Amino acid sequence: MKREEQKKKVLNIRNDFPIFKNSDLIYLDSAATSQKPECVLRAQQDFYEKYNANPYRGMYELGEAATEQYEQARETVRHFLNAKSSDEIVFTRNATEGLNLLSYSLADHILQPGDEILITIMEHHSNLLPWQLAAKRHGANLCYIECNEEGEFTEEDFKQALTPKTKIVSMTQVSNVLGCENNIKRFAQIAHENGSIFIADGAQSVPHMPVDVQDLDVDFLSFSGHKMLAPMGIGVLYGKKKWLEEIPPFLSGGEMIQSVTRDHAVYAEVPHKFEAGTVNAGGAAALGAAIHYYEKIGFDFIQEQEQSLSIRAMEALRNIKGIHILGSKDPKKHHGIISFTLDGVHPHDIAAILDADHIAIRAGHHCAQPLLKHLGVLSAARVSLAFYNTENEIDKLAESVGSIRRRMGYVESDVL
Ligand SMILES: Cc1ncc(COP(=O)(O)O)c(C=O)c1O
Predict the structure, then answer these.
(1) Which of the four pLDDT bands, split at 50, 70 and 90, describes residue 413?
(2) The domain 3-30+298-407: what is its CATH number?
(3) Which of 165, 239, 361, 392 is a Cys-bridge partner for 244, taking CB atoms 3.0 to 4.6 Å apart?
C-alpha cells in the first residue's frame, strides 16, 4: 500500500477508537493492553442490553439468545485460528488462566517424578511460574533453553535441550520484551518427534499476525482478548480435541457436568468441561466483534503498518546518545516491541518524563525477570506498537526520548 494511502487508513482507523478522540494521548503500551474500538465496546453493551441472561441455564428465549451469542463468538474464534472444531476453543479469563489450566489439568495427568518441562528463558512469568509450581508438585524438573542477546536459539539448541523425559514444552511465539519470534511450527514438530506435548503462548503473537493452529500443529495455544482490542477478562485456550477430552477439568462447579452424585461426577463434553461457573458471555461477544474488526482491517495492513513504524522508531531511537535497544538490530524482528535502556536514567524516570509529554510506555521488568537477568539488565523501558499508531507519534516519541538526558541535567559531554 502506498505511504499516503496507509497514513489515511490509519487516521480513519483512529476515528474508531473513542480514547483517541480529542486527545493528545500517544499510546505506546499495546503489548500491555490494546485500546478498544467503538464496535467492540458496543458489542459488549449490546450483549447486556439485548441478550442478558445466564447462558446454558435460562430455558427461555432470552437465555437461548445469550447462549447463541456466546457460541457464535466461539465459532468466530475457531475460524480466526483455523481450528478444526469449535469444541477446541475454551474461553478463559486471559492467557495466564489458560496456561495455569494446563499446568494443573495437563501436568497432573502426565507428569511423573523426574520428568522434565522445557521452557525458554524469555518466557513471561505467566508461562514460567505455573510450570515452576507444577514441577514442584510432581517432583519434575523445570529446564530452560537459553537465548542469545537477540533472543535467538537454534534448532540444534532446542534438540539438545529435549530429552526422553521432556513431557511438556511451553514456549512463547513472540517475546514481550525482545519482540523476537520463535519458529513455533518447527519447534512443535521437533517436540512431537521427541514425544513431547507442545504449548504456545500466543499473548503477543495472535494480536499481530495470522495464527493458524492446524498449520502450526501446536497442542495448545493460550492468549488474551484484551491485547487484541477486546475487553479485559476474556481469553482463549485452544487445545486439540483429543487432549481436551483426555485431561481432567481445572475448575469445577456449575455447568461443567452431565451428572453429579454424592461421590462422583460425569463431566460435560469439551469445551464446557473447562468452563465452570457463569461465563463471560459479554466479553466473548466483544472478542467476536474484535475479531471481525481485525478481519475488516486485515493482517496484511496490520503487519505492514506495525513493521514500518518499528523501522521508523528503531532508526530514530538508535541515534540517541546513551540508548541501548535490547534484542535484534533488525526492526523487522521486533514485532512492534522495542525495549531499551538509557545510560544514567532509570527506566521509571524515562516513563515518567515521557508521561509528562503524554506518551504512555511501560517500564520495569516486564514480568520476565529471568530474561532480564540473563541479558544483564535490571529493568528496561518498553515501547509497544499497534496498527493504530502513527508516524507522527513515533517522531514525538523520538523527540521526547532524545530530550530526556538533557532534562535530567546531563550535558552533551557527560561520559557515563
Ligand atoms: C508473552 C506473554 N504471555 C503471557 C502474558 C499474560 O497475559 P495476561 O496478563 O493477559 O494473562 C503476557 C502479558 O503481557 C505476555 O506478554
Answers:
(1) low
(2) 3.90.1150.10
(3) 239
